[in-house]
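Quarterly update from the structural biology core.
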Amino acid sequence: MSPNPPMSAVHRRKPGAHPTAADFDSLRNDSTLISKSARAAGRGGAGRSVTILLLAWFAVLAVFTSWRHESLPAPVACGNGLEFSECEARITIRELAHDIGMRLVGTKQEGMAKDLILEKLYALKRTADATPGMPVFDIDVQRADGSHRFDLMGHALIKTYTNVTNVIARLSCGPECDSQAILLNSHFDSTIVSPGAADDGVGVAVMLELIRILSQRPVKGMRNAVVFLWNGAEETLQDASHAFITQHPYRSSIRAVINLEAMGQGGKEILFQANSKEMINAYSRVPHPHGSVLSNDIFRTGLVMSDTDFRQFVEHGDLVGLDLAFYTGSYLYHTMLDVEDTIEPGSIQNFGENSMAMLEYLLYESDLNDIKRDNDLIFFDLLGLKFVHYTWGSAHMVHWIVIGLAIGAVLLRRAPLAHTVKATASAFASNLGSILACLVLGVSLLYGIRTPMVWYSKEWYPVVLFAPVGLIGSLLPQAWLRNKSHAVSSRTGDYNLERAVYDGVLLQFAILIALTDRAQLGITYIFTFYAVALLVGKIVDWTLRSQARHIHPLAYFVAALPFAITTELSIGTLNLFVPITGRTGPDAPADVIVGVLTGALLFLHSFLILPLAHRFSARDLGRIIKGLALLSMVVTAYFVTQVKPFDVMHPKRLFVSYKENISDNTRELLIAHADPGPMKEIVAAIVAQTGKQPTLRAAEETGRDWSTVAPFSNFMESYAFDVSHLAPISPSRPPGPQLTVVKDSYDEETDTRRLALRCRYPGYIWTILTFKADVVAWSLDDRTMLNNGGRDAITLRHAGGYPTNAWALDMTVRGRGKLNMELSGLEQDTFHELVDEYGSLPGQGESTRKGSPVGSALGAVGVGKAWKWSERFGSAKVLAAAESVMPDWTTGLYIATVVSRLEI
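Predicted structure, tokenized:
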């Protein structure tokens, strides 16, 4: 840093001497220097003007980026021949989600969905077979039994399944194509709490449209086959995809997979998992690219509490592929608001056109025999205009060239090393300051004021709430640096500090590139963009302005260009993570997590304010910080007092269960939630209705109470209301699941006991068996839970396809002592007896009536209360009473379960 020279350095005279002409010249020179400095800074004027222009430039970039992010192709109408049609896809989605409704594994609606898909496939096959020269069209239905281990965020259980269904179709050019195929996967079942229009009705419908088009194209030029898998058991923790990739005859021909999923209601589907260069090449052909290696990295960390069938294909089939999913509007994911009406127009068209482009490349151009797994990739799209991909080998070289150029550019300024180090440290301090300031506000909201999640109802609310305090955190280190410097006046800017901090920011990104390059983190490409833009800004500055003055304003405008990329990154990140906080558990510090995330994103948007701050006088900089502090207090006060965390279309998720313990004849109403948001009003409503005070369950009890949704039960907080005093339900529920020991023998020599267990559960769809034992062998495929010494509880969660009502387990345990077991079952009529607002059961009445179509079990979407049952479902009396008092800003799961405790 080179401060302006003091007057004594310009001219000296002896003490007591009379002023001379040289003294007045010196004063004039000093005044000129100060005047120039003041004019350069404009006593803050230049800083203000450049800041205003830069903010306007930011706004232009943000508007353009948001427009690009939100832009979707126009939906194609029905009847447009061999062109992908969103209109046609929506017809299928309505048939699945509205006419059939909830399609849980083990319900008759599951069977209806299977029949619907087969009906459409056979119609397409008849058309294709009637035209010469079309692809060979094969259809198959797989029913399978099996088991596998499932892990989610550190919690594991064993999944068992019987009679799960897969609907499979294959298009090929004949035997020469059959040995190498690409797999497309979606699932036609829905989760326990949703009619599943987007998840995964969209995937089902997109694949039906794709096979409609491809089956009517001449086979000439086709190099590879394509297998379409509509699996019938994904929501039971990926049972059907496991069955296909481990048991179906086609599995040996599959070379790669494209998985179509949804964890939101539309927008652009994101490429969030990829593990092959050739598959990335296929994706580079799509007309609407949207994906980044960043999402790939984030998903691998397990921070996103969701998973797809892609896991089964990779782990059990050793496949390469792409995982694509909707993620915008995730507030409605796995709720009764996941209906066709809430799927954003154009999003299905986007999904379909991209999928078709990939298939065209893979079927007609790609050599699938040479395809291999390769995680050594960086990929991203540029505002949906261009998809960029390259290997880490190329990236390492580019990164170190940029690092070298950054260091060289800083050295060319010939500033003292100590000044450069201080400026670089201040840049890191500002980065950390932004994060820490937002963290402090998050902690205050969650633990101090105790108003959590006031930002939840809009993805962009965290920016409004946390931005002022985050900017304070960024500017305070710069204010400290300014106060420690030796500027001529606190009323002027300091161009030396401005240049030093600009270089410090550049070096900061160079250091971050080096660190993330070594760790091979995808975010390296973002830091590289910033560093290159700052380097180009320096070139602009060198070209247009002398080194002795403030940085040329045009340099800031050039250096700000990555703001567009950062804006899209931030939109996508907040769209993903803000809704997810509504299902990460009541103990998750959601405000802290979102605060830290917003602080980090904020710095990536605002790093140019660090050098720009030194165009202002120290006094003006202090005023800006004070103004931001006042703004932060006003904004925070407004959010705390006026903004509600939940509303109808951004609801709080509730879980309601009527549980009967047939071992001790107790009955309970369980109310659970999965976020740190308020529960007081909800609990009070149930207290008023039941006349009972609740018991807050401990974590272990909650896991047992909600074993039907394990392992998600580990992220719930549950309240139990004893309703044993209420009159027994009528009609009564079916008898609970029955566990029978058909063989029990003990081997004294090995001190082991051999058991053959059989379970029958008519009237129930899912069963869960929990016990502690030192199991040394069993009839299940997984071996990881054997020989655990009996320390950890083993959970076996079973699902059976429709119709199924039995399962078997053979096992050998160490010791001859009795085993304490708990067996739970999910009552089938919870779903079989759902009715629409007119009281019609699925499959009855007219599907075109205004409002909710038959079988959807939905009221008006805007209300968010959707559960209605026929009088044949006795447990509905308890559940409906609870549903009737729930606030409109909630959405719920309502189930009836039974539990029995056994000693075997």
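Residues 1-19, 21-44, 842-864 have pLDDT under 50 and may be disordered.
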